[in-house]
Amino acid sequence: MPSITLFQSPPPESFQSQIQQLVIDNLTTISQVALPASNRLYPLYQYGVGYEVHLYLQAMDGSRGFPVEVVAALDDDDPSQVLGFVLYLPLTNDPQACTLLYLAVQEGHRRQGIARAMLAKVLERYPHAEMGCTVSQVACAQALGFQVLGTRGSQVLMNTRDHASAGLTPVLDTAPIYRSVEVRQIHAYLLKQHGEQAMVNAERQRDRHLDQLTKDAQAFVKVHLGR
C-alpha cells in the first residue's frame, strides 16, 4: 500500500505538477462537465480544470483566506511519485465537514484500495464529507461509504451522512479562467484546426451532454429516494 500523506500547505512543485497531470488525464471522470474526449472542446476544458486545480493548490498557502487540503498517495518504492490524490475544502462553521472537489488515481494503480485509503485519511479529519458525481459513478461512491442525498446541477449529491452539513463551502470563482487570454488562444487554435462549424457543433454537443447528465441525475434520485 502506498504512503498516504496529508498536505495542509502547498505540496512540492513536483507533486503539484503530477496532481495537475492526473486532473488532465482524468478530466471526463472528475470534472462536473464530464466532457468526453471526443468533443472538440476537450483540450480547452483540460486547461481550464487543470488551472483551477493549480489555483486551489496555490491557495493552500492561505492567500485566499480559506483552507484547502490535499491527501496524496505516494509510491512506497519511489516516494517522489504521486499515485493518486484527493483535493477537498473544509467547511466553515462545521469542524467535522468537508467537500471533496477532485479525486483521481493513476490508471495502472486502480482497484488496489488507494482511493479508499485516501478517503479514510480525509474522514479521520472530517467525517461528514460531501461530493458530487455522475450517475455512472454512484455505485463506486456508495462502495466508499457515501449515500445519495439529492442532485446538484448535472451531478448526484453524495454524503457520508443522511443530511447535508449546515457549513459553507468556500470555493474559487472559476469564471475568469474561461475568459483568460490562454483560453481564448486555445479556442482560436481549435477553431483554426477544426473549423467554425465543428466548434459550434462541439458547443452544442457539450450543452446536450450537460442537459442529459442533469436529466439522468434527477431521474436517478427520483427513483432512488422515491421523490
Description:
- This protein has 227 residues and is of the alpha+beta class.
- It has one domain: Gcn5-related N-acetyltransferase (GNAT) (Aminopeptidase), CATH 3.40.630.
- The chain has helices at residues 13-25, 27-30, 42-59, 114-125, 138-143, 181-194, 196-225, and strands spanning 3-7, 69-74, 82-90, 97-105, 128-133, 147-152, 155-159.
- The chain has a 7-stranded mixed β-sheet, sandwiched between helices.
- Strand 4, helix 4 (114-125) and strand 5 (128-133) form a beta-alpha-beta unit.
- The mean pLDDT is 95.
- InterPro entries: Acyl_CoA_acyltransferase, GNAT_dom.
- It comes from Pseudomonas eucalypticola.
- Pfam families: Acetyltransf_1.
- Keywords: Transferase.
Defining key terms:
single chain; 227 residues; alpha+beta; Aminopeptidase; seven-stranded mixed beta sheet; 7 helices; globular
Average pLDDT level: 95
Structural class: alpha+beta
Number of domains: 1
Q: Roughly how many Å apart are the termini? A: 41 Å
Could you say what the CATH topology is called? Aminopeptidase
CATH superfamily: Gcn5-related N-acetyltransferase (GNAT)
Instruction: Name the shape in a single word.
Output: globular
- Quantity of strands, as a count: 7
- Following the backbone from N to C, one meets helices and strands in this order, namely EHHHEEEHEHEEHH
Count of helical segments? 7
The low-pLDDT segments are none
Strand order of the largest sheet: 1-2-3-4-5-7-6
CATH hierarchy, class:
Alpha Beta
- What is the rounded Rg? 18 Å
Measured as a percent range, the helix fraction is 40-55%
CATH architecture: 3-Layer(aba) Sandwich
Task: Specify the biggest β-sheet.
Answer: 7 strands, mixed
Strand portion, in percent? Answer: 15-25%
GO molecular function: acyltransferase activity, transferring groups other than amino-acyl groups
Organism: Pseudomonas eucalypticola
Domain N-acetyltransferase: 28-178
Keywords: Transferase
